[in-house]
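Allow me, if you will, to draw on your knowledge of protein folds for a short while. The matter concerns a single protein, recorded as an amino acid sequence and a row of backbone structure tokens. Could you please explain, in whatever detail you think fit, how the structure tokens follow from the sequence? I remain grateful for any guidance, and I place the record below:

…
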Amino acid sequence: MDRSRRRRQFNREAEDEKSYRERFRFPLELDDEKKDGESHQSETMNDGNGSDSFIRKEQRRTLFEETKKQEKKDSSFRITKARDIPSAVHGTKKHEEPDENGASGPIRQKPLPGASPLISAIHGTKKEELSKKELSYIEADKEDGGVRQQGYTSPIIEGLKRERLLRAKKEKKRLEERRQREAREKARYDDPYNLKGKQPAPIGHEQESAENEEALPVQETSEKKANLGTASPYNVIMTPYDKKKRLNNRKIETKRQGPKYTMPSIHMLGSDQTDDYGEADGALAGQVVGAFEAIGIPAEIFDYKTNGIIGRFGIKLDRTFRLSNIARLREHLGPNLPFDSFRVIAPIIGTSNIGIEFPLKDPIHIPFSKVFSSSSLKLRKNDFKFVVGKTVDDKIFSYELQKAGHTLVYGNNEIDSSNAIDNILISLMMNHNPNEFRILIASDKPHYEDYKNVPHLFQPQKSVMDPDVLSGLLKELNDRHNQFRRAHVRNLNSFNQRVSYEARKSVIAVVIDDLSELFESNNPDAVKTIVQVLKKGKPLGIHLIMKHTRTDVNIRFEWLQMMQTRISFRDEKSNIIEGSETLTDGNDMLIQIPTSNKALRVNGAVLPHDSKQRVFSHLKHIGG
């Protein structure tokens, strides 16, 4: 209970008696004959310090002696120091040792071996004041090389000392070699053409270097000594002369060089298309309106679009006409229209009208130069865009290879399908150098003879039936997969943004001609590689462009699902794209892209053979 609280109590003795009864007595009293009052009086006696306690003084004394901490005894197993390490400021510890007369007194502090006279004077360790014992101690230290063997010698400390001495020797040797090397470089720099007829001194020949220094003018020797003096113990990495030389070399290495490849000029593609192909034939328009009137449907032509090969009349019908009757309208219009093959578009995109598409009697070919120069490809951007041709409404069809993914060219049309693949590849080679775009051609057909020795080739051309035709591609696919996973990226663009220019990966376009031959033959290695590329090649920058010319050979449904972009020529069964049976034979195709749910009718552009040779010769020249 608090002392101040006890003073405020009125009957303190009664309170003490009550509190005593409630307390737990410790230790227990074994003598039951004593009265409680006497035991209470003996237990509540104040000790010498005046503190209350429930244990007798005699018992407390015995308990203290039993629990008292034992004094530390001297042990023979105690390890002493190897030597007392003196301090230049505080000196060593003072030990009480008897002097020569037997009287004990403090020993003078032992200084560092080789300490300066100033420090010795501060601590009183001049040689005149040292005793004989201390002088013998210093002499023994000098005889042992500064390491006195006294008491227990620690192998760890000795090993550290040996390592320290070895490092000091190596550092001294390295600095000496650096000084000599700088001297030779300075002499070579002062006399680059060796006009003085003297060779720089080799390492270790100090006499020859001294003679060379005497032969040099006084000003040059002073500059040389100034440069040599820069190599100090505090600048052990390199001297300022070496730093400047290293920075100059780094600037030369990191200096950005000019472009190694020049892109082919647009003028190599040939002449443009004439502008008179877009005029409509008035007589033909009157016959179309007459065909609708013959079946009792009022119609009106509101526009005409053409790309030079296919024309389209935009027809406005009565509001009461239902678009669900388009299927029957085609059957009734066929005998009345002036052309044999036509295609009904219902409705035209963006309107509520229908369109009648038909081939022109005198088609005008679409030049590749016109398509290239009128699209965004003329800006020569690094966006991996390609052009194929024009749509019926005279718009250029261009698309990005990275969005297109894997492309299937389907249809029994060998010439036009090969020209479509040429348009894709040449569009990409016109705007991308071999470091950005690569081509792998799996075909032995003569159509691809022009691609030989092109710097864009990933590997030499091989036949589709060759077992190793795609072995290098499979290795590249696995390497890219592992590298992208280590870099924590998912696609090619993210990887190229994180690495340097030299470590960037190129986009690879793989041309397989023909896929139907691969299905009929037994080439399991190539088939397995194609399946792997279809599954995980698009984000890694590897895109397949596969041609399938035999419509009687079916393609697996799983493969079709992984081919995002499909190009179909005329197909009676419409196996790939619905509506391809209405196309005309020749340069006429439907293209289904992943970003649209409706196929586009496109006519391919034509690149003349001489223009194609000019482009390839330019590419081979810069590659060689």
Notes: The mean pLDDT is 76. The chain is about 40% helix and 15% strand.
